[in-house]
Design a protein that fits this description.
Alpha-lytic protease prodomain-like, Alpha-Beta Plaits, 3-stranded mixed beta sheet, 3 strands, 66% helix
C-alpha cells in the first residue's frame, strides 16, 4: 500500500510539473524567437525534453501500478526504463542541433534582446526550482523520476547561465556569449543523457543492478545455515527498483521440511541485505561423499549454455 500511495502523490506532482513545464516551453520558444536568443531557444528545447521526461516518469508511475497479466508476467516495470532510454537518445539528437546552430551563430553574431532573456530565464529558475522541490523525495526510488529530476537540475543551471549571460551582454554588448551559452547547455544535456543511457541499458540488458556485487551476494548466501554451495546465480532488475534472482543451491539430502527452513533463511538474507524480493531457488541434493569434493558441473561443448541438474 505504502508504495502505491507514493506513486499517487508522485503522480500528482509530476502531472502539475508537466503542465507547468509545457506552458513554459511555449513561452520560452516565443521569447527566444522574439529576442533572437539562441540560448533561450536551446533552453526551450531542453525544457521540452524536461516535459518529455516528466511525461515519461508519469507514464512509468502509471504503468508500475498496473498489475502483471498473462503475457507480461513481470508487470510493466520495464516500460518506464525503456521510455527513459528513448528519451535520453532524443536528448543527444537535440544537442547535436544546438551545437550546429551555435557554430553558425559564432560565425555570424546576431543582436540579442538581453532583457527578455533575463526575464524568461528567471521564470525558468522559479519553475525548475519548484519542480525539483516537489520531486526531491521520490527521485530516490525511481529511475524515471530521477531522470526528470536531473533534467530539472540541468535546466536550473542553464537558467542561471542565461541570466548571467544576459547581464554580460547588457553591460559589455558582447553578443557571442549567447551561442557560447547554448553550447554549454548542449554539453549539459549530453551529460545528463549519458547517465540515463548507461543505467537504462544496464537494466534492459539484464545487467547486475547498480550497487550490487555478485561475489558479496554469493558469500552471504553461502553463510546461510544448511547451504553447501551456490551456483548458476543470476541477478537482474525488472524495473528501476525491483530486483530478481535465480540460482541453484546445493544442500545435503534432507527431508523437505528442513530444506524449507533453509529456503526461508536464504530469502530473509536476500531481502534484508540486498533488497531482492523476487527469488527462484532450485535446490540440488548431494550425498555427503560427493559434497565434500564440491559440486562440479560437467560441461560438454554443445550443451555449455544449458544448466545441468543432478
Amino acid at each position: 500500500m505504502h508504495s502505491h500511495y507514493h506513486a499517487n502523490a508522485t503522480g500528482r506532482v509530476l502531472r502539475w510539473s508537466f503542465v507547468a513545464t509545457s506552458i513554459f516551453v511555449v513561452v520560452e520558444f516565443v521569447a527566444g524567437i522574439q529576442s533572437h536568443s539562441l540560448a533561450l531557444l536551446s533552453d526551450a528545447g531542453h525544457n521540452l525534453t524536461d516535459a518529455l521526461s516528466l511525461l515519461l516518469a508519469l507514464f512509468g508511475c502509471y504503468l508500475q501500478t498496473k498489475p502483471a497479466n498473462e503475457v507480461k508476467t513481470f508487470g510493466y516495470h520495464r516500460a518506464g526504463v525503456l521510455t527513459a532510454f528513448v528519451n535520453a537518445l532524443t536528448l543527444v539528437a537535440l544537442s547535436a542541433w544546438i551545437f550546429y546552430e551555435s557554430y553558425q551563430r559564432l560565425m555570424r553574431p546576431l543582436a540579442v534582446h538581453e532583457s527578455v532573456m533575463i526575464v524568461v530565464a528567471v521564470m525558468g529558475l522559479a519553475l525548475n526550482g519548484g519542480v525539483m522541490w516537489g520531486l526531491r523525495v521520490a527521485r530516490h526510488h525511481d529511475i524515471n523520476v530521477r531522470s526528470a529530476f536531473i533534467h530539472m537540475l540541468g535546466d536550473l543551471l542553464g537558467s542561471i547561465g542565461i541570466v548571467v549571460g544576459g547581464l554580460v551582454i547588457h553591460y559589455t554588448g558582447w553578443q557571442q556569449i549567447d551561442p557560447i551559452l547554448s553550447i554549454l547547455i548542449g554539453v549539459l544535456i549530453i551529460w545528463t543523457a549519458w547517465d540515463i543511457i548507461q543505467e537504462s541499458l544496464n537494466i534492459l540488458l539484464e545487467g547486475l543492478p547498480r550497487g550490487l556485487e555478485l561475489q558479496s551476494v554469493t558469500s552471504a548466501m553461502r553463510e546461510v545455515k544448511g547451504v553447501l554451495d551456490v551456483h548458476d546465480l543470476h541477478i537482474w532488475s525488472l524495473g528501476s527498483h525491483t530486483r530478481a534472482l535465480s540460482c541453484h543451491v546445493l544442500i545435503e539430502d534432507l527431508p523437505l521440511s528442513s530444506s524449507e527452513r533453509t529456503l526461508r533463511r536464504l530469502n530473509d538474507v536476500l531481502a534484508e541485505k540486498f533488497h531482492i524480493f523476487h527469488t527462484t531457488v532450485q535446490f540440488e541434493h548431494m550425498s555427503c561423499a560427493v559434497s565434500e569434493s564440491g559440486c562440479v558441473i560437467p560441461v560438454d561443448v554443445e550443451e555449455s549454455h544449458g544448466h545441468h541438474h543432478h
